Structures are given as C-alpha cells and as structure tokens.
Amino acid sequence: MREIEVFIDTEEISEFFYHELIKRGYTPTEDETAELADITFDYLLSKCIIDEEWEE
Question: For an engineered disulfide with 28, which of 2, 32, 43, 47 has Cβ 3.0 to 4.6 Å away?
C-alpha cells in the first residue's frame, strides 16, 4: 500500500458539520461543531487512519 500525505483541518471539519447539520434541520452552535470536529480527528487517530504530526 502506498502512503499519501493528508492534512486534516479541524476548522474545516467543523464548518462542514455545521452546514450539514443545518441542512438536516439542526441548529448547532460553533462550540458544538468544534467538539464534533475534535471527536472526528480523535476517531481518525484511534483507527490509525492518520498520524498526528506537530509543527515546529
């Protein structure tokens, strides 16, 4: 299997969740969608789909 470099932006994920939830009739707060984005990131880490790298 080949390796590719992927950048995960939790702010982008948060915005995506916000718009998708609005389309489905929910009214999320900014804090709620930020939490969902963080949970999604943690899920991807736990499933070894991504590796977290720290910027120097």
Answer: 32
